[in-house]
Structures are given as C-alpha cells and as structure tokens.
Amino acid sequence: MKFSSRQPEPAQMQLAPMIDIVFLLLIFFIVTWQFTKSETELSVSVPTAQEGAEPERGPGEIVVNILADGTVKIEGGAVDLAQLLEKLASIAAQYENQPVRIRGDGAVSYQRIVEVIDTCQKAGIWNISFATQKPASTN
C-alpha cells in the first residue's frame, strides 16, 4: 500500500483586514490628538513659574481657559459661570475626583480666577490644578 505524501497548501495571509484595522487605528489617533489640542486656547498666556512644568494632561482632565478679558471657555466654546456650573456638576456626578485644569491668562484679574474656582467647588470638583509655564531662558 502506497500512501501519498501530499501536504496541504500553506494558508495565504489576508492583508485587507489588517490594512483596514491599521487605517482605523490611524484615524482614531489623529482624531483624538486633534481633539486634545483644541482644548487649549492659544490666546491664553499662562503665568510663568520657576517650577512650571510641561503641560501633561491627566486622563479625563477638563481644561477651563480664562482669556485676558475674563471670558471663560470650555471645550472650545465660551460659557458664563452658570453654564460652567451646570456642565461641571453633570460631569462630577458621573466621575468621582474629576480633575480640572485652569488655564488663566496672566493678565486676567485674580477675582475672575477665584470665581471659576468657586464654581468648580459648587459643582463638587475639588481636584483643581493650574497651568503655568517655565520662564523663557535668557542665555
């Protein structure tokens, strides 16, 4: 009796599904990167501090921008303190210990910063940090 030693043909790798997944991941990362960049207002010049750190966002951190004229912006839109309270209260109800970063312009009055901090505390948010930058080196 003679057995045939035929081996099955090797399976071919399908590239189309792999390319689809790579493109989906690429689109996801591009969209999320653009979204996080849009939350920082370029017109806000944060104060300088010797121990100022590079802006590293925590997971889920909300960025509140306060322009030099006192306008409060969150998620790219201008809001008043009542709208800010409503938005922050709904987020704080869902997420315990919600972080908020306040990016106040160096020229904005301290009273306006205190009003925003007070609004955060009324909403139940206590994890508040402030954005600063290192002074420009004069070498």
What does this structure look like?
There is one protein chain. The protein has 139 residues and is of the alpha/beta class. It has a domain at 38-130: Nucleotidyltransferase, domain 5 (2-Layer Sandwich), CATH 3.30.420.270. Helices cover 37% and strands 15% of the residues. It has three helices and five strands, in the order H-E-E-E-H-E-H-E. It has helices spanning 15-38, 81-94, 110-122; strands at 62-66, 72-74, 77-79, 99-104, 127-130. A five-stranded mixed beta sheet has the order 3-2-1-4-5. Helix 3 (110-122) links the parallel strand 4 (99-104) and strand 5. Helix 2 (81-94) packs parallel to helix 3. The protein is elongated and about 95 Å long. The protein starts with 14 loop residues before the first helix and ends in a 9-residue tail after the last strand.
CATH fold call of the domain at 38-130:
Nucleotidyltransferase, domain 5
Structural class: alpha/beta
Strand content: 15-25%
Shape: elongated
State the end-to-end CA separation: 90 Å
CATH architectural arrangement of the domain at 38-130:
2-Layer Sandwich
Helix percentage = 25-40%
- As laid out across the biggest beta sheet, the strand order is 3-2-1-4-5
Give the CATH class of the domain at 38-130.
Alpha Beta
Q: How would you characterize the largest beta sheet?
A: 5 strands, mixed
Specify Rg, calculated over alpha carbons. 25 Å
> How many separate helices?
3
Order of SSEs: HEEEHEHE
Overall average residue pLDDT: 82
The poorly predicted ranges are none
Counting DSSP E segments of at least 2 residues, the number of strands comes to 5
